[in-house]
Amino acid sequence: MDALSQSRIRFVTTRHEQGAAFMADVYGRLTGRAGVCLATLGPGATNLITGVADANMDRAPLVAIAGQAATTRMHKESHQVLDLAALFRQCTKFSAQVLEPEIVPEVVRKAFKLAQTEKPGASFIEVPENVAQMAAEDLAPLKVQAPAIPNAPQSKVEQVARLIDEAAAPLVLVGNGVIRQHASDAVVKFIERLNLPAATTFMAKGVVPFSHPLFLGTIGLQARDP
Fold this sequence. Notes:
Oligomer: single chain
Structural class: alpha/beta
Order of helices and strands: HHEHHEHEHEHHEHHEE
Strand content: 5-15%
């Protein structure tokens, strides 16, 4: 906390860790850049889980950071000691402990990279208190390298066009990736050009306007959706 006060990072205090996780979840969902939430060890970290799991399931980039007891007492029953890395591994793309200060740049870069690359999701970093106190003056963040999203080969585009031409009853199912790639307008133009009916998944609601004559509704919510 003291270090953050001297940095360019804006820290937002919340009344509860779950609120912090949901705020980071929505920030990542709206911007495409990982929102970050911070908690203390034990119950502070477990309070993050609902928001972290929601971000991971809804494909919103998020990085959660939590404290941990010193490595000298993690092997025994001790105050507020939980295996957080194992706990968060069930609801994240990446979960890691920082056991040496030298690995901080690599762990942090990997956490953000995996959180933001397709399909996005959540990452978790656990920092034991004695490791957090170690000197790390000579370390610098690793350079961000983001791969460009490739265009489909022309042969694949032509293959898809043939499949649509030959289909007796073609249907477009629109998913959340359309929203992440800001391709809603392109999808609407596509279905209008080919006169194709379209349905959306729950997370793609709004890509095709509900009032559009080609929109069939949202599927995947009920056991017997038509």
